[in-house]
Amino acid sequence: MFRHFLECRGGCIGDAVVMREPIVVFDTNCVLCSGMVAFILAHERNRALRFVGAWSDEGLALAARHHFSKSDLDQTFLVLSGDAALSRSDAGVEILSQLRAPWRWLAVIRIIPRPVRDAVYRFVARRRYRWFGRRENCVVVPPSESHRFMGVRRQGSGSA
Known about the structure:
By secondary structure, the protein is an alpha/beta fold. Helix content is 37%, strand content 14%. Strand 3 (23-26), helix 2 and strand 4 (50-53) form a beta-alpha-beta unit.
């Protein structure tokens, strides 16, 4: 199934893999992050995004391919698009651009300098468990969307 998320263009050389659609690698134990995924599912424009649990083998492999460690994933989510790996506020802005109006208009925050955006992102990220909670694999994957998810427990099943 992992191959459905990835596509080689012009032949793969080593780990040179390009994503077909943008992939969101997110913390499946974070209530805020799982709520973000539910919000994305409800408001995205064209259902192109794919989702991978950060702590799954697939999520860790994708992160490592883009030079992010498990420790990094505890500080940010990733949006992998083409050969780009976006993190922190850049990942958030990319997500906003994938949403329907009026939510996508919020992507205008990209005019705020990245160090300022990232400082706000880090402030929230460090406190997310305290403010919003932590539950083991708390994301709820609607059965109709399960083909877009990897490395997360499906609704009504005990497996990822």
